[in-house]
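Structural biology now treats backbone shape like a language. To illustrate, our science desk offers a sequence and the tokens encoding its fold:
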Amino acid sequence: MGQDQTKQQIEKGLQLYQSNQTEKALQVWMKVLEKGSDLVGRFRVLGCLVTAHSEMGRYKEMLKFAVAQIDTARGLEDADFLLESYLNLARSNEKLCEFHKTISYCKTCLGLPGTRAGAQLGGQVSLSMGNAFLGLSLFQKALESFEKALRYAHNNDDTMLECRVCCSLGSFYAQVKDYEKALFFPCKAAELVNDYGKGWSLKYRAMSQYHMAVAYRLLGHLGSAMECCEALDAIEKAQDLAEEVGNKLSQLKLHCLSESIYRSKGLQRELRTHVVRFHECVEETELYCGLCGESIGERNSRLQALPCSHIFHLRCLQNNGTRSCPNCRRSSMKPGFV
């Protein structure tokens, strides 16, 4: 299969994919992989397969094609192809919750010199890195990365990237329990979809609606249907999983939930254990207000991030009247995006 025929088949697959004939599109692209000899065409079709499997939730397949794309990019010996393929590799690992690998591949992207695609893809690299930091409960680093991604989006009029960043910020503020901002950012994403998303994938509308639904649910009154004994068994399993993947925020929330259950049952020894572990998790994640000392993420509260990405209770900043960050003393007069 020659270069022109490869291009035609890739375009045919894209038309099928955009008309929601996903399986037929995959068949066309797989034939290109089997019969095509053009390296650039092979690179492009592997990118299509990475995107398609990502949107279908087939993340192991996504990773397989991302690895094949890296090998093809190395054969092309072009920094722009390497940047794109390393970004796809980072995204694949992000979807599989391999957050340390995601960060490593993102740093490789940022370290590639003189790429023409850097300005276009730099924001996507920052977004993927931010999602990975959020998965590891490294909140300040996550916020710094989301801030960079928003700058890229605004500077390059990339509304699709801005939509994705807003959804990630919705998830960020849902986790730290500022539910108003957890709703604000997905609503902003939904506005972008309505205003600019005519030719976008349906996933962007679904993504913004999902994060809005999460925020609305968190703002409502939730009742627990589990008996205490059933809840403790489920919590113990969840704690083991959270510790295994290194998700400190989940550990924090589970210790908080265990604390309330053991308090209601009057089991003082178990209660003290979870109180201690809860405060240890707060220290490890630096998830507390540097002005009042209270933990962040324990209850719904309005938060404010300073340009240095340290987070405080909004009321504490308003009452304190400080002109610099209480944590690092950097100037906080210039407002940030988030």
Remarks:
- Strands lie at 303-305, 311-313.
- The two ends are 49 Å apart (CA to CA).
